[in-house]
Design a protein that fits this description.
Layout: H1 4-13, H2 18-32, H3 35-38, E1 41-47, E2 50-55, H4 58-66, H5 68-77, E3 85-90, H6 122-137
Parallel strand pairs: 2-3
Antiparallel strand pairs: 1-2
């Protein structure tokens, strides 16, 4: 029986899954970048012979412009065969952060939490007390 790593490496080496290879190579290249640049990269992709970086903020675009020669030298040392140029731009789409939805009970609590806990087992006693605390908080 084959291991999962063997199956994944076999699929990765298959020419039909070339996009998976390029995206993983781009992710590795982004990880090689200095931390001040890596933080600003949203994602990257290759189109034609150009490697595009989509950035999160215009300040990072200025940093990339300043360090363009360093990035090109890293690009020559990496295993991108058909990439000659790099380009970067800031996306205009604003990321919307999902708000946490508080789940409110569908009913109004009618109990006051006043009851006598006669449980003899310690675990059950603690459970009843935690239920009492939940009731008194609402």
């Amino acid at each position: 029986m084959k291991k999962l790593n063997e199956i994944l490496s076999h699929l990765k080496n298959n020419p039909e899954f070339r996009k998976i290879n390029t995206s993983s190579t781009i992710e590795k290249f982004i990880d090689v970048l200095p931390l001040k640049l890596k933080k600003g990269v949203k994602f990257g992709y290759i189109k034609g012979q150009t490697l595009y970086f989509v950035l999160t903020h215009p300040v990072y675009k200025m940093e990339f412009e300043y360090n363009k020669a360093d990035i090109k030298s890293l690009l020559k040392n990496s295993n991108f065969d058909n990439v000659n140029e790099i380009a970067f731009f800031v996306t205009n789409k604003i990321e919307r952060k999902s708000k946490e939805i508080k789940e409110e009970p569908l009913y109004k609590e009618r109990s006051n939490g006043i009851f006598i806990n006669r449980a003899k087992d310690e675990n059950i006693y603690k459970k009843f007390e935690s239920i009492r605390n939940i009731i008194t908080k609402t």
